Amino acid sequence: xxxxxxxxxxxxxxxxxxxxxxxxxxxxxxxxxxxxxxxxxxxxxxxxxxxxxxxxxxxxxxxxxxxxxxxxxxxxxxxxxxxxxxxxxxxxxxxxxxxxxxxxxxxxxxxxxxxxxxx
Length: 119
Description:
By secondary structure, the chain is an alpha/beta fold. The protein contains three helices and five strands; from the N terminus they run H-E-E-E-H-E-H-E. It has a five-stranded mixed β-sheet, covered by helices on one side. Helix 3 (94-106) links the parallel strand 4 (83-88) and strand 5 (111-114).
């Protein structure tokens, strides 16, 4: 049994479908919007930083966990996105992280981001 005529037919069918598929027009014509990357210059960025020793900073200003909630509420009232980023040292006490996370949610933050270092 000769396989070369079968291979020729398969090859011709393959070429036909490859060429005919490139000439098909899409069924739906779309004009996609353009977008620009970047963030709003007016938006206040809220960052909570937790150090290895357990110190708490709100936007690089030292604070305590007790005062954090009231200060965070004040900043979140001015923020449109209600987004908070929590940065912590890899050797920080996890209880401090959990306390900061709990305070952040109680203060009315909608989006809570945890910052990490890319590897």
